[in-house]
């Protein structure tokens, strides 16, 4: 008979593994293993069950102490002309620490998801937008238009938490209609209304349809017979649904807009939403926040005015979204040390490069190439407490220490590097 | 540590000290009456000929929280015009309209401000606000939690729940969000906008809840008085920016059943409908009403000319005003059945009729209200102008010649509609010390701020007595925070992190059962995770102290 293992149940646990940051999980902890017992999803169940992994820091592949690894990292950074702080998958405390260290050594900051996130940011900077948040969607949305994404591949519980509820603040018989522009939802997706209407258009041509809808709303005559490969009559129907909604929501996942100039599609979505608000209420719901991308951006923005792709090289923050990409800097040989942070997902490994690389990685990270310094770090919300911004950018959810391991946090590891300076 | 500040000319209105030459003493960060017998002076500054005041207190400045970070994200062009370089002791950041938290702290300190309060903290966004304030160096900080458009309160009001239940909810909110006061913004109106209502007057019913803004104001002003919260309800009223809203403002003063009320950025709520353009100054009527209602205080929310950004919880007003923005971009956001926010960049031009009149209306209010304890100096940073324009504003108040020179340059139609040119009053240094120190500290209930009596925090500002008051107030010679020299001649010389200020009135825990049911049924966050813990505040502020102020019971 196997010895009885003591397991404790922890309620109201926050999950840091996607941008929804659900905070209602029930997790059981036994020895060094965690398991999601309730309110889990495909992503959280796998991620919480991951073992903590090897806690041993390494310098050039050789096991060492945290202090010695930190000392070597400090030596490399002190000698660097333009270190690149990339990945940046961490919590608020990690983002604060990374910004401080990057400033100290004149580095560049760029989150691993920035190429996608910038498609939204460009629109925010050029035009602004009208958006809403999860509880508003849950209680008010009577029409949800999902553009170019199935949402659930990246955010598994979105429909369960924001759409499937039949009771809202305003009644017990909610029917939220869903229209999918592009991919359909996986079968079995829980909803509170009729089966979704799927308009299977080509997402990279979605902007054509958005132009048509805006023209229809404005009452302009149209020559086109189709848009994005779909007959005009269908877009007329979609337009009327949108116009008739009392609180419509248009959701998109910018990471799924992976085609050239996708920011122009976001731009068109946001302009359409503004048009709709001339007569009714309609809001955007941009989905993101995974790997701490919105958190890293938020901290950079409040401290320095800029998020990803900002250089501290000249002693003040310089934002250049075109020049300062991780890929571009590495390809052009403009960075001489890569400092990679990925504390949530051990598969988010650094890009391959010949320059010295310092990795603060989730324990268990398997690296193709031995980095100069590897410091295994804990995951916020599993190994230590922290805070993470949710997809709607307003709610900073507290993350708990679940005592899986005593791995250092990103902030601790950076603190050790600063102490070794 | 004993500090002696010798021979300065002291302005300390809380103790009726008006330009008296004397010494100040501080031991271990607090003002003391004098040295103990035989005590050695550790540091001494000769302040002969210098003007000495307590550290200034900005009681309404949007320095932290979601809407400012949206403004920062929207305005790379603003940051690029005002880069803030790293120094040996200070960090890199950006300035102007939506400055980084780091720059905001440094700049406030070099202007002699030692405490700043974020006035619009959405309860669900309180963590972010405290995180941002935790990254704001130099100054003490705190904030006011926004209620009045949250569905929980509107449901309590709609159900006719007793006042005691409302009070419990207000107290729970203050504790959960670690705030110093409660603010209401367009009472009920942010919620009404979610139901596609585009205006909501004081006595107009919300289209879903059978509740009027008057009900919200009356209930919340009463709640704060009954809970003994030192700062009265902080009110951004209905109809912001709407011609004729002076009527609404006067009616709002009468909506409190005599309870205390603080009307914030009252300039934006003091307009008439006279003249060819049906837009005129209502300042005289509003000033008269403030005079005759001793339960009313206000801050002005002065408009100053130039570029800025407006960031407000009032989505209804921001959406309405978005077409007047510059450059043409805006954000509007509905937030968590809690409130909302709207961000619209603005450029106030002295040649624009409306902007010029707004500028004049603010100055008229300053100059026509005869009780400086109840009219506080703000620009509603950054909504009327960035806080860095305070020195120019002080000069406008203190120097009639300068004021009339500026008046001569504004839009002629606006000039014809303002009485500003005929107002002779010039503020004295004593009155400026009330407006910027003693007044806000008293209205916030910060008993050890805003004055220089024994027991006060040793936040002391030393100015050269320059007849150019703008120059004088831009860069004081010395700024002491908690008895330490932190800024000198416009430069930060030591980085400190201030304290948080909050209140925590007691309440019947039964309200948490109601809240839990509400969160479980409707919200996307657990009630258990909503209140901010002591450990979190410690982490947000990187170890700074949280001062919990007493409520009158």
C-alpha end-to-end distance of chain B:
36 Å
Average pLDDT reading of chain B? 97
Helix content of chain B: 25-40%
Rounded Rg of chain B: 22 Å
Oligomer: heterodimer
Report helical residue fraction of chain A: 25-40%
Q: Structural class of the helix and strand makeup of chain A?
A: alpha/beta
The CATH class of the largest domain in chain A is identified as: Alpha Beta
Residue-averaged pLDDT of chain A: 96
Largest sheet features of chain B:
10 strands, parallel
Proportion of residues in extended strands of chain B: 15-25%
Task: Provide the number of structural domains of chain A.
Answer: 3
Can you summarize the main beta sheet of chain A? Answer: 9 strands, mixed
Describe the strand arrangement of the main beta sheet of chain A, using strand numbers: 5-4-20-19-18-6-7-16-17
Name of the level-1 CATH class of the domain at 63-302 and 351-446 in chain B? Alpha Beta
Low-confidence stretches of chain A: none
Fold-level CATH name of the domain at 63-302 and 351-446 in chain B? TIM Barrel
Percent strand of chain A: 15-25%
Describe, in plain words, how this protein is organized in 3D.
The complex is a heterodimer of chains A (421) and B (553). Chain A has 3 domains: 7-47, no CATH class; 52-113 and 291-419, Rossmann fold (3-Layer(aba) Sandwich), CATH 3.40.50; 118-288, Dimethylsulfoxide Reductase, domain 2 (3-Layer(aba) Sandwich). With 421 residues, chain A is of the alpha/beta class. The termini of chain A are far apart. In chain A, helix 2 (66-78) crosses helix 12 (410-419), helix 3 (92-104) packs parallel to helix 12 and helix 7 packs parallel to helix 9 (262-276). Chain A has 12 helices and 22 strands. Chain A has helices spanning 42-49, 66-78, 92-104, 114-126, 134-140, 158-162, 206-217, 232-244, 262-276, 293-304, 326-331, 410-419, and strands at residues 7-13, 25-30, 33-38, 58-59, 62-63, 83-89, 108-111, 130-131, 143-147, 177-181, 197-199, 226-227, 230-231, 247-253, 281-287, 310-311, 318-319, 337-342, 357-362, 373-377, 386-389, 396-399. Chain B is an alpha/beta fold and 553 residues long. Chain B is globular and about 70 Å long. The model of chain B has no long low-confidence stretch (mean pLDDT 97). In chain B, helix 6 packs across helix 8 (213-227), helix 9 packs parallel to helix 10 (283-292) and helix 10 runs parallel beside helix 12. In chain B, strand 18 and strand 19 form a beta hairpin. Chain B has a domain at 63-302 and 351-446: TIM Barrel, CATH 3.20.20. Chain B contains 19 helices and 26 strands. Chains A and B meet through helix 3, helix 4, strand 8, helix 5 and helix 10 of A and helix 1, helix 2, strand 7, strand 8 and helix 4 of B.
